[in-house]
Amino acid sequence: MNDEIRAEIQRQTRPLRIYAILMTAVAGVFSLAAFQGRPARTAFQEIDVERINIVEPDGKLRMVLSNRPRSIGPIYKGKPFGYEGGGRPGIIFFNDEGTENGGLTITGSRDSLGRYRASSSWSFDQFDQDQILTLQYADNNGVRRTGLTVADRADRNIYDLVTQRDSINAMPDTAARRVALERLMGPVNGVPLAATRLYVGRDVAKNAVVNLFDPLGRIRVRLRVDSAGRGSLDFLDDSGRVTFSVPDSVRR
To answer: Alpha carbon of 114 to those of 58, 61, 70, 199: distances in Å?
Structure first.
């Protein structure tokens, strides 16, 4: 092939070569954009891990799944407070602000004498406060309680409350510290910091019970089927004395 023919072929095919280069570049850009826009995913058949943090795009915690040593302590808006971690194996949940708002914890072990202690708790926290709904199993070597608890919590910010408590606990004067703690943790305008309102479950005496409490946490109505199968309904006054009972009061 002489130089004139070669030059003519190159001149005629130049637009095709330019078109091919442009299309390759465009395809590369779209491929890269598609790859970057698709979240990276990794599949595992099995994984051993001590802790997993589920976070929002801004880094706020939403859930922590961990063993005991790496378990997290209380968090308020991303700030640790109250006590160190290391004692709550299980799952801890967090709200939109990065504040703890409940969790699922499980423990159980035997000592050197063969006695065991076990517990499981699934709790839900009031906003900016502590737990108000709890499903719990607690067992001290066969002395066990299992049930659902509903509680009231005062509208007092838990972070401020714990910060004040820690400051009071640092006071050197024992008597003054005790008085200050009683004032901080006591009722405000007659409203207690916390009060159980409902308990449904099985108590340590092997009774199946439904207990209803007043706003101060005093039991006022108790529905019970005891370990022998006998049923009763008791109404109590604010001092805890039974004022009417079914069937006993009806019989009288």
So the answer is: 48, 39, 27, 31
Q: What is the mean pLDDT of residues 171-196?
A: 93
Alpha helices in 50-144 (DSSP H): none
Signed CA dihedral, 74, 80, 82, 84: sign only: positive
DSSP state of 188: B
Q: Are 213 and 196 in contact (CB under 8 A)?
A: yes
Task: Record the tokens describing residue 5, joined without a space.
Answer: 């023919």
Check the CA dihedral 33-34-39-40 and report its sign.
negative
Residues 92 and 71: their CA atoms lie apart, in Å, by 9
Global pTM value: 0.79
Q: Which two tokens stand for residue 30?
A: 């779209």
With left for phi above 0 and alpha for psi between -120 and 50, is residue 104 left, alpha or beta?
A: beta
What pLDDT does residue 108 have? 95
d(CA 168, CA 160): 12
Q: If pLDDT is split at 50, 70 and 90, which confidence band does 41 have?
A: confident
Mention every residue, 6+ apart, whose C-beta is less than 8 A from residue 77. 97, 98, 99, 159
pLDDT 10s digits, 188-220:
989 999 999 999 999 999 999 999 999 999 999
Helices (H) and strands (E) in the chain, counts: 4, 14
